[in-house]
Design brief:
The complex is a heterodimer of chains A (about 220) and B (about 280). Chain A is an all-alpha fold and about 220 residues long. Chain A has 7 helices and no strands. Chain B has 11 helices and 6 strands. The chains are: A mainly alpha (about 220), B alpha/beta (about 280). Chains A and B meet through helix 2, helix 4, helix 5, helix 6 and helix 7 of A and helix 2, helix 6, helix 9 and helix 11 of B.
């Protein structure tokens, strides 16, 4: 058996087989054996995702450990990562409903997550003050539309300036919807095209093979 | 350096401090300002309110640590609304973290229920837990529940759950409530449940995602939408169940007004500078 068969052809055939099995289940009634096989395959997705997550943790830990051992600038911050990881894993292994684990989650993970999301308010305001300017007609139109939609979105906006509601709703329902609808259609067509390319073995990036596009290819 | 120039180069820490005051003040000193209800929220509320007693809804909880502060209060109100109407809820999540937060929302809603409201786990509601596989997982769940999962969040076997007796696919549900947060997963519910099974859907997403889903509303595929913390506040207001979202919506007022003032100031200063020929 050649190396090419193992490394390229077999994975391409397997990918095509799994795509066909997943797709046909959506369009035609399939025997139980096919449905059960697809359910197992979907469980594999979870296992692979979990494995990728583990791999990420391992590499991130190695990177932090390296910074600590080499005493690079700010190495003590990396200690926080290692300590947080070990403590959380230790409590997590006792059970995800363990009180100490829940305490960490409720009082650290949740507020940090919310705080990170909230920081955008600060950055956006600072950035908007500096760059959101009517430098030309295009920017002026964007600025006016942005103002109308934001006024409509803040709870008191419609009370202060009632005309912004119909204009804002129109902007959201027509130009914005049309743009997003085009984007959704474009993305969907792109995904279908990519699926067909993977199915037919013309796209092998998922196997780590990046081929040079030649001519019409 | 002119005053205009100095103001245009305002230290960003001053802007951060102003924003902090604008957001913290209404939370620390609750000020209730008048609020208009958005069309999408009113539609979502009217749809939820029209679900008849005895119906069974499938409920995706997609809020995480970052998005729960915006959508959590609204999700709690939606659960409260459904259970007090006598509508039974089947919950699930397509994220591991979200699965946990869905349980938090259920527990919070259960604590708020008026005494005597039927809310027995397994009878009036059930949390199926984490469903793996993203959109494919949703498709699998609504086509064959028992082939997709064996037990619920509390490890109770599916066959031992009275609420799911005789239900094995989406034909057993009357509505879809998709609290997707920032998952971007609302189309999963539309593509996998609402359109194939003809079940109406509504839900919630973060404010920035509202434009992504507005095409589905104008196409009639989505009955309405609660957007961000304002959506949650509007639900609290419409159901006359004031909660944390109303306070946060007031902070949004002040934050939004400050943002607009800063942009306006930036543009005025920019034009003054241009007229002086400094830019």
């Amino acid at each position: 058996m050649s190396d090419r068969l193992y490394k390229i052809q077999l994975p391409v055939y397997l990918t095509a087989l799994f795509i066909i099995l997943s797709v046909v289940e959506h369009f035609f009634p399939m025997p139980g054996v096919v449905t059960n096989f697809n359910v197992t395959m979907r469980s594999f997705v979870t296992v692979v995702s979990a494995a990728a997550f583990m791999l990420g943790i391992i590499f991130l830990t190695i990177s932090h450990a390296k910074t600590i051992t080499e005493q690079k600038s700010g190495w003590y911050y990396n200690l926080f990562y290692i300590a947080a990881l070990l403590i959380t894993i230790a409590f997590g292994l006792m059970g995800v409903r363990n009180e100490s684990f829940l305490f960490i989650y409720d009082n650290m993970t949740a507020p940090i997550g919310a705080a990170l999301y909230s920081l955008t308010a600060f950055y956006i305001t600072s950035a908007a003050f500096r760059v959101f300017r009517a430098r030309n007609w295009n920017a002026a139109i964007l600025l006016v539309c942005g103002f109308i939609v934001l006024t409509m979105l803040i709870p008191i906006g419609a009370i202060l300036l009632p005309p912004v509601v119909p204009i804002g709703e129109w902007l959201r329902s027509f130009p914005s919807s049309a743009g997003f609808r085009g984007m959704i259609m474009g993305t969907s067509l792109g995904v279908m095209g990519l699926a067909v390319r993977v199915l037919t073995g013309r796209q092998k990036d998922h196997l780590g093979i990046r081929e040079e596009r030649m001519g019409g290819e | 350096m002119s005053i205009t120039d100095r103001l245009l180069k305002l230290d960003q820490r001053i802007i951060y401090a102003l924003m902090f005051i604008a957001l913290a003040f209404p939370i620390l000193n609750p000020v209730v300002l008048p609020m208009a209800i958005q069309g999408y929220s009113q539609d979502a509320f009217d749809f939820s309110d029209s679900i008849p007693e005895g119906s069974i809804v499938i409920f995706e909880g997609g809020l995480g640590a970052a998005t729960y502060p915006q959508g959590g209060p609204g999700m709690v109100v939606q659960i409260y609304h459904m259970l007090t109407k006598g509508v039974k809820c089947v919950f699930f999540s397509i994220g591991t973290e979200q699965n946990f937060w869905t349980m938090t929302a259920i527990e919070t809603a259960l604590k708020k229920l008026p005494a005597g409201t039927p809310a027995v786990n397994g009878v009036d509601w059930v949390h199926l837990g984490y469903i793996a596989g993203g959109e494919a997982g949703v498709g699998s769940l609504v086509n064959d529940i028992r082939a997709t999962i064996e037990a619920d969040y509390f490890d109770t076997p599916i066959d031992d759950i009275p609420l799911l007796e005789g239900i094995n696919d989406a034909t057993g549900f009357d509505a879809v409530l998709w609290w997707g947060g920032s998952e971007g997963s609302m189309p999963y519910g539309i593509r996998q449940i609402s359109v194939p099974f003809g079940i109406p859907i509504t839900g919630m997403c973060t404010t920035n995602e509202v434009p992504n889903f507005s095409p589905y509303i104008s196409a009639g595929q989505l009955q309405g939408l609660f957007g961000g913390v304002r959506g949650s506040a509007e639900y609290e207001f419409l159901l006359k169940l004031p909660g944390p979202a109303l306070g946060q919506a007031m902070a949004t007022n002040f934050g939004g007004l400050l943002w607009m003032a800063m942009v306006l100031l930036g543009n005025i200063l920019y034009f003054v500078q241009r007229m002086k020929g400094e830019s």
